[in-house]
Amino acid sequence: MNMTTMALATARMPILSTASSQSYLDSVQAIPILTREEEVELFQDFQLHENLEAARTLVLSHLRYVAYIARSYIGYGLPLEDLICLLYTSPSPRDS
Q1: Rounded Cα gap, residues 70 and 92, in angstroms
Q2: What are phi and psi of 91, to 5 degrees?
Q3: What is the C-alpha R_g of the chain?
Q4: What is the distance, to the nearest Å, from the Cα of residue 82 to the centroid of all Cα atoms in its chain?
Q5: How confident is the model at residue 44 (pLDDT cuts 50, 70, 90)?
Q6: Rounded distance, CA 95 to CA 19, Å?
Q7: Long-range Cβ contacts of 19-28 (<8 Å, 24+ apart)
């Protein structure tokens, strides 16, 4: 486990609320980005060994991307918090 993966493993899940969306975004920005190799290793660890900590690390590492996408839709009438929640719950292409 390298330094990025260790940092993610000990990171706390940011909490999103209407009162603290900027605090949430700041927390998300502090989460390290994984390399492709780290993502593959974590995914395989989760898939082969059902390692939930590996899955948690993958999810945490992608929160920055979710926030980035949500921010690009600001101005369409939904609050940022709702946009982020919609992205969290939207089905993946593999679900269809």
Answers
A1: 16
A2: -70, 150
A3: 14
A4: 16
A5: very high
A6: 33
A7: 21/79, 21/80, 21/81, 24/67, 24/84, 25/67, 28/63, 28/64, 28/66, 28/67
The alpha carbon dihedral of 7, 13, 86, 30 has a sign of negative
Q: Which helix (H) or strand (E) segment is 53 a member of? A: helix 52-72
Token output for 85: 């929640």
Average pLDDT of span 72-78: 90
In sequence order, what E strands does 27-77 have?
none
Global model pTM greater than 0.85: no
Encoded amino acid at 29, one letter: Q
What gap in Å lies between CA 23 and CA 89, rounded to an integer? Answer: 21
* 23-36 per-position pLDDT tens digit: 888 888 888 899 99
Residue 21 CB partners (closer than 8 Å, separation 6+): 79, 80, 81
d(CA 95, CA 42): 21
